[in-house]
Structures are given as structure tokens and as C-alpha cells.
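Z., the sequence and structure:
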Amino acid sequence: MAILSEMPLHLHLSSKISLVLHPHVMAHQTPQKPIHLPEILVVGPPSILSTYENQFSQKFHMLKPYESPIPLEEFLKIHAQNTQAVFTSGTFQHLNSTLQLLPSVRVVVTTSVGLDHIDLNQCRRRGIAVAYTPAIFSADVADLAVGLLIDVLRKISAANGFVKSGFWPIKGDYHLATKLSGKRVGIVGLGSIGLEVGKRLEAFDCKISYQSRKKKPSASYHFYTDVCELAEHSDILIVCCALNDQTYHLINKEVLLALGKEGVIVNIARGSIIDEKELVQFLQQGKIAGAGLEVFEHEPNVPEELFELDNVVLSPHAAVYTEESYKDLYDLIIRNLEAFFSNKPLISPVPLDE
């Protein structure tokens, strides 16, 4: 050691470094522990992962059964028996059976505002908290609802095809369209999305009415307790309500008859709220004037009969796909998960005690 102490400083340091890096010395050192990340089970998976997967992976250890070759049930038994958090989306239809295989789960965080994919009774019974996205997408969905409506009435998509197919020089002027201004619009479900739809249609001087579970004291629109009565007094129905046992096939043959041959329907809620078979027949037979459909009863399968109808505008359940809302969604999901793992209240909890 005396020789070492007499060495120049840079050689002294070099020797110390060599000692530290020597394999025999390293073998006796305690290996550095990996950074522990909270574990979440991802099922679905939510589409937001395609945009923000790197950011999620820096904050959480993600179990991804959809990337495993083994069946989901076996994967869960092997890897997820101690997992406390589930991250999912409204399109994952096997969540309830999945939760039954997860004895330790304490929270479900979903990217959707709709909750028809979650058995809230099971969650309430087991003490599983649920976080959702109650208002992030309301403006985007309302924008698309009005966009679909204008497209159907003014025949924008059909006219676009007419021009691009080269028919304009051959067939001359296109068909007459229908104006939106002044129309009677019935909104089915006056929640956050329905209110945003109403706000936008006020600018078109539309006469707005609504049907909901109960009358909204803050809304100035005319209230109907019965959806058939609403349809009878409307030129247009816009479906904005949640899907549940009460609203399944709420828009049925009777409602469509009440809407009438000049009526138009727009659905930006859930496909099963409308009896799809009846809707297809009404459109084919000219018993209603048109439809703008963002959602379908058996997604991603869409009735092929609709493809040939110029008075129908279709969208692939993509109303929420905007860069701005995805950024807001990512922030909310992260805040909910971080709150859970910090034993703090969720940012956007579903009230399970109602």
C-alpha cells in the first residue's frame, strides 16, 4: 500500500478502478437491485398503448397476456394471482370472467366512459374500485355526432363519391340535400355528451328536446319521459345514452315508426341500444330517411346491407381518436394508477355505492 500511496494521483485512481472492476472483486459485491415498478395487468389492450406504450412501461411493469402464446386463464394463474390493478378498455368483452380469476385485484382502470363491459355489482361486492373517463371525450364525440348528422343531411360522403367516381360530367347536378338549420332534434340521454351535442346544435337554431332517466333541472330543453314520444316530435334522433339492461334495444321498431319516413338517426353511444336488424330493414325500405352510425351491435362486424346505401354514413367507433384527447386520457390514466399505488383517492372514480 505504501507503493500505491507514492504513485501519482491519476495512477492511484486508475489502480483503484482496476480493483473495483476485477471479476474476483465483483463476485463478492452485492448486485444492484432492479428498480421496482408497480405491476398492472393489461387486457384488451387499450388502443392508447400504441401511442404511449413507452411512457407506460417506464412507470409500470405491464403484464400483457395478449402477447403470450398460452391461454388467458393459464396466464393469469401463473403470472397474475398477486396483481392488484387491471388496465382495460371498453372494447374488451371478457373483463368480468377475467376478474373472477384475479383474487388480489383491487382496482380496474378503464379508458372508456361507458361501463357496460364492467360488472359493477361484482366490483362492489369484492371491494374493487373502478376508475373511468367521464368527460374527457365528450366534446370529441359531440363533434362527430354533429359531423355525421351534417354528412347524412347534406350528403357529403355520397357527393364525394359521386365526384371521385367521375359521374359529375356525365350525370350533371347531384341530388337535393336537406338543411340542418331549424330541425327538431331529440337527444336520447342528456349526460355530458348529450349536453355537448345540444350546445352545438343550438348554433343551428335547432329545436332541441330530450329523453333521459330523469329531468335535468339545469337543461332548458323540452323533456319527454318516453322515447317513442320524443321520436314522434323529432326530425332527428341522436342516441347518447349509456348501454344497460334498460336501454338495450331501446330504439326498436316502434321508435323508428314514430320517427317516420323523413327522420334521421345518429348513434354515437353503443350499437346495442338500437335494434340493428330493424334499423337495416327501415333504411332499406325507405321507412326512415337516413342514419349516421359510429357504433354497431356486433363490432367490428357491420351489416353489409348498409354499405350500398348512400343515405347512411359509417364510422369505425373512432369518435374519441383525437391527439388532444389521447394526451388528456394518458394523463388521467396515469394519475388514477399513481393515486391507487400511493393509497390516495382515485381521480375519476365510478360511484359504486349508488
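The chain has two domains: 2-136+323-341, 138-314. Residues 7 and 99 are 66 Å apart (CA to CA).

Let me know what you think.
H.
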